[in-house]
Amino acid sequence: METNLRPPTKRMIEKLRECVEKESLNNGKIPCLPEEMKSSLAGLYKRGFIGTRMEQVNNKNILCIYVTDLGKTFLSSRDEKLNKRLRNIRNDVRAKE
Fold first, then answer.
1. In angstroms, how far is CA 71 from the centroid of its own chain?
2. d(Cα 55, Cα 85) in Å, to the nearest integer?
3. d(CA 43, CA 58)
4. Residue 11: which of 37, 29, 33 has the closest Cα?
5. 62 near 18, Cβ under 8 Å?
6. How far is 19 from 43, CA to CA, in rounded Å?
7. How many Å apart are CA 74 and CA 46, to the nearest integer?
8. Is the N end or the C end of the chain the one with fewer CB atoms within 10 Å?
């Protein structure tokens, strides 16, 4: 599979973050479902940020979504960049005071 190099949309990032939060709150026991990802599913999958696997939930095999290491790395690097920008803004404001 060829990885899509275009940046993900805001909606994709939001859905990815929601899925990571759901996984972390429940120790990975409650997976994300395709219905929760809506239109972001294909784009995130093509970028390699999510993967799929069949799991048994309530005695039924269903397609579950999980965030890949690449997806988690993307979110953490994005958060680091945002925090750095906020620190720079705070420092600029303090310098002007």
1. 5
2. 40
3. 29
4. 37
5. no
6. 15
7. 14
8. C
19 and 65 Cβ atoms separated by less than 8 Å: yes
CA–CA separation, 44 and 12 (whole Å): 7
DSSP state of 61: E
Look at residue 61 in the predicted model and tell me its pLDDT.
92
Which pTM value belongs to this model? 0.72
67 φ/ψ angles, rounded to the nearest 5 degrees: -85, 130
Query: What gap in Å lies between CA 31 and CA 50, rounded to an integer?
Result: 12
Say if CB 28 and CB 20 are below 8 A apart.
Answer: no
The pLDDT of residue 2: 53
Evaluate whether the domain defined by 10-96 bears CATH number 3.30.200.20.
no
Task: Give the pLDDT confidence score for residue 38 in this predicted structure.
Answer: 79
- Exposure class string for 50-62: b at 16+ Cβ within 10 A, else e: beeeeeeeeeeee
Show the tokens assigned to 2: 């060829």
